[in-house]
Structures are given as structure tokens and as C-alpha cells.
């Protein structure tokens, strides 16, 4: 009898402690969205999460492209204290899964029909060994040129349709004292310009062979020499203070008319919009010369964590991220287009419409390609080897031939 009572009392106290201490879903979220446009976008997710009972702990790690965020992530995981949700993308999702670090979110995916509402090409990036291991928020396009509308029109120029035209316009503007290309000398920004140039000059097959398959013939081809030649020309179009500049400060140079162009993914549009600039009026968008579409899908992976509050937080967050309304509002701010195929683009601007149409056409035409510079095409070591070469070339007087030799060697060493 006494024993029974004790057992009953223990059982009651367990239930009580559990129900008293459960404070609802919570999530610590690691991301690198710290610029004006990015902060506005992540605030949309934060708001939806709290409106649905979640409590959000923000872990922003500044640094475009996410290199610093990834370093911070590794340190947290090594210390046995991974954040619950992490902005992660491309093959690094599968790399973390293989290390046993990611939670399986298939139950949320099934319940919310992700395989119906997401295109197969995007869903593929979100799966690890057949299980859903990440939730996509958008599709960013990389191969864009942004321009100050009045700088171009007042000097009698339109958006360049070929690289020769780009070079000619840039030279003419430079002669008038305008900085042709707003650029920040950070490795990932060099890589961003480089891959747009490579796609434009080499075409989609070349890009795929070189930066997806790492095919040696493509890597050491004459086409690759031409790509580095164009990069050398681009180097002449940046101002002398370009080193280390953040990408959003480069966007600001285009906004205020100090510079004519920026080559950057469409998070730059988020920046223009956050500053109240109007597409088609204050700034122009066009794809960089050439065929194809370089995509970059932002997504969140859930790291294995203990406790029902944190696990419930992960489930809630995953569900909200792929939610229809969230995908609309977030992407209106972020500059990207929704990952879901059933979100109306009625409220989106001309640039987003161009992006969606080009993405569909490229998908049909076989020229839809993952961005290497934004971690969608290759594992970290290989992407890093290419970027090291691109940066070394851009910041020196290295010849295109030497750059190609360095590229091939760097890739060999990274395997
Ligand atoms: C991310 C964007 C982000 C940009 C600049 C890209 O790699 O996909 O979401 O805005 O980096 O930080």
C-alpha cells in the first residue's frame, strides 16, 4: 500500500513538473541576414513564429554569403550546443546530415504536402538519404546586373546585352568619372561575379562541366582563360576602395549614383526595396549577358536538440517556413521568389516576374544551374578551392593562364 502511494506520488509530481515547466515551442535561429533588406525579411519569420506561440532566440552572424555564420555553427556543434535551426544550403545540408547532426523533419513535410507544393529540383536539395532534412524559403537568382536608372539614361545607355557591350558602357562611364562596377572585395563577392561571367562567356554546358562536374577539360579550357580575361577587365572597373567592402554598401553606391552597376544575387533587390527605391524607376534589373539561370535556395536545417520545447519549436518553424503566406511576404522583402509553385506572383515586381519566367524556361531548356559561389553545386572544400583561385587572380596581376593552372591544381588538392 505504502509502495503504491509513493509510486502514485512520484508519478503525479512528474506530470506536474512536466506541464508546469513546458513554456511552449522555442527556437534559437542562426542566420546571416543582417543587412537592411535581410533584417526586414527575417523579421517576417520571427513575427509568424511568435504569433504561433513560439519564442525565438536570434543568433545573427554578420557576413554576406554566410562564411562567418558557418564558422560560428561549427564552433557551436563542436561544443555540443547546436542551435535548433540553422540557415544552411546546398550539399552542406547533406554533409551535416552525414555527420549525424540533423533532425529528420519528414513528418512535418508529409503533413504539409511538401512533395506536392515544391518543385522536384528544390525538394532534391532538401532531402538526405530519402528523408526531409531542410525546409526551403526561396529561390534567389545570382546572375543579375543591377543599375542606377538615371545614371544610365542620362548618359544615353541601356542595360548591356553582351559582355562587350558591358565593357564598352563601363569604359564610357568611367571616362565621365562614374565608378562602373560597385563591388566589395570579399572572396564570396569575387566568386559571385566570376560565376556570372563564366556562365555568360562559357554557356550552360561549360558551367555544368566546370563547376558541377569539375571536369578537367573544362577547367583548363581556352574558355576558362577567356573567363579570367573578362575578370581582369572587371577588376579595372572597380574603385580603389573596393577591398573588404560589404555587398550592401556596394548596393548603396548604385542607389546613390556613385556607381552604375552591381553584379549580385537578388538579395540586392531586397536592399533597394528596403531603402524605398522603385524597380524600373530608380533602379534596373537584367540578367547578366548569356544564357541560363544560376539559382541559390535559402533553407533551414534543424539540428538535433533535446527537450520537447525545442523540438516543437523546430517543427513549428519548419511548417511556417514552407507556409504559403509566409513564402509570399518573406520573398516580397527578400528580393527572391517563392520556393513553392502555388504562390501567386501578382504582388511581385517586374524583376521577380523575369526571374520566375527565366527559371521556368531554363528548367525546360536544361540551363537551370546551381550556384557554385553560394554553396549549391559543390561540397565546401571544392567550392573553396575555386574561390581561392578567383580571389588570388582578382587581387593580383596573375595572368589568365596562371589562374587556370592554379585552378586545376587547387581542385586536385581538394579532392
Ligand atoms: C544568401 C542570401 C543572402 C546573401 C548575402 C546568400 O548566400 O543566399 O540569402 O542575402 O548571401 O548575405
Topology:
Elements: H1 2-21, E1 26-31, H2 36-51, E2 55-60, H3 67-78, E3 85-88, H4 91-98, H5 106-111, H6 114-117, H7 120-125, E4 127-128, E5 131-132, E6 135-136, E7 138-141, E8 144-148, H8 149-154, H9 163-175, E9 179-181, H10 187-211, H11 216-219, H12 222-235, H13 247-255, E10 259-263, H14 267-274, E11 283-287, E12 293-296, E13 299-302, H15 308-321, H16 324-334, E14 337-338, H17 350-365, E15 368-370, H18 380-394, H19 400-414
Parallel strand pairs: 1-2, 1-3, 9-10, 12-15
Antiparallel strand pairs: 3-13, 4-5, 6-13, 7-12, 7-14, 8-10, 8-11
Beta-D-glucopyranose binds next to loops.
Please, could you describe this protein's structure?
The chain is an alpha/beta fold. Helices cover 53% and strands 14% of the residues. The strands form 4 sheets. The chain has a 5-stranded mixed beta sheet. A 4-stranded mixed beta sheet has the order 14-7-12-15, sandwiched between helices. The radius of gyration is 23 Å and the shape is globular. Residues 1-18 have low confidence and may be disordered. Beta-D-glucopyranose (BGC) is lined by residues 32, 38, 64-66, 140, 267, 296, 298, 374.
Largest sheet: 5 strands, mixed
Oligomer: single chain
Compute the average pLDDT.
Answer: 95
State the total count of DSSP E strands.
15
So how many helices? 19
Strand content: 5-15%
Strand pairing plus helix content: what structural class?
alpha/beta
Distance separating the two termini: 69 Å
| Low-confidence regions | 1-18
- Rg, please? 23 Å
Strand order of the largest sheet: 2-1-3-13-6
The shape is globular
Query: What is the helix content?
Result: 40-55%
Which ligands accompany this protein? beta-D-glucopyranose
Amino acid at each position: 500500500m505504502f509502495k503504491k502511494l509513493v509510486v502514485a506520488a512520484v508519478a503525479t509530481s512528474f506530470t506536474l513538473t512536466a506541464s508546469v515547466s513546458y513554456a511552449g515551442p522555442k527556437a534559437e535561429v542562426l542566420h546571416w541576414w543582417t543587412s537592411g533588406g535581410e533584417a526586414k525579411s527575417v523579421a517576417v519569420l520571427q513575427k509568424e513564429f511568435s504569433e504561433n506561440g513560439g519564442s525565438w532566440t536570434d543568433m545573427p552572424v554578420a557576413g554576406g554569403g554566410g562564411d562567418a555564420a558557418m564558422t560560428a555553427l561549427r564552433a557551436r556543434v563542436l561544443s555540443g550546443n547546436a542551435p535548433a535551426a540553422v540557415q544552411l544550403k546546398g550539399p552542406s545540408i547533406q554533409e551535416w546530415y552525414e555527420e549525424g547532426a540533423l533532425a529528420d523533419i519528414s513528418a512535418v513535410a508529409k503533413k504539409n504536402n511538401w512533395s506536392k507544393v515544391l518543385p522536384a529540383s528544390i525538394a532534391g536539395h532538401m532531402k538526405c538519404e530519402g528523408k526531409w532534412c531542410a525546409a526551403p524559403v526561396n529561390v534567389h537568382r545570382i546572375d543579375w546586373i543591377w543599375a542606377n536608372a538615371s545614371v544610365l539614361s542620362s548618359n544615353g545607355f541601356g542595360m548591356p546585352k553582351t559582355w562587350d557591350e558591358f565593357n564598352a558602357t563601363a569604359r564610357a562611364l568611367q571616362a565621365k568619372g562614374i565608378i562602373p562596377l560597385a563591388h566589395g572585395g570579399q572572396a564570396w563577392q569575387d566568386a559571385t561575379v566570376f560565376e556570372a561571367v563564366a556562365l555568360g562567356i562559357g554557356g550552360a554546358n561549360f558551367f555544368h562541366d566546370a563547376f558541377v562536374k569539375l571536369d578537367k577539360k573544362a577547367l583548363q579550357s581556352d574558355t576558362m582563360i577567356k573567363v579570367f580575361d573578362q575578370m581582369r577587365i572587371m577588376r579595372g572597373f572597380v574603385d580603389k576602395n573596393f577591398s573588404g567592402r560589404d555587398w550592401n554598401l556596394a548596393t548603396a553606391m548604385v542607389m546613390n549614383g556613385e556607381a552604375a552597376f552591381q553584379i549580385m544575387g537578388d538579395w540586392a533587390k531586397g536592399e533597394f526595396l528596403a531603402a524605398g527605391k522603385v524597380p524600373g524607376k530608380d533602379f534596373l534589373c537584367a540578367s547578366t549577358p548569356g544564357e541560363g539561370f544560376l539559382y541559390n535556395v535559402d533553407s533551414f536545417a534543424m539540428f538535433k536538440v533535446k527537450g520537447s520545447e525545442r523540438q516543437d519549436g523546430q517543427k513549428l518553424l519548419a511548417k511556417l517556413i514552407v507556409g504559403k503566406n509566409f513564402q509570399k511576404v518573406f520573398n516580397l522583402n527578400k528580393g527572391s521568389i517563392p520556393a513553392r509553385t502555388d504562390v501567386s506572383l501578382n504582388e511581385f515586381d517586374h524583376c521577380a516576374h523575369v526571374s520566375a519566367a527565366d527559371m521556368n524556361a531554363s528548367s525546360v531548356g536544361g540551363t537551370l544551374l546551381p550556384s557554385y559561389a553560394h554553396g549549391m553545386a559543390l561540397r565546401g572544400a571544392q567550392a573553396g578551392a575555386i574561390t581561392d583561385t578567383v580571389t588570388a587572380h582578382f587581387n593580383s596581376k596573375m595572368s589568365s593562364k596562371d589562374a587556370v593552372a592554379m585552378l586545376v591544381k587547387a581542385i586536385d588538392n581538394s579532392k
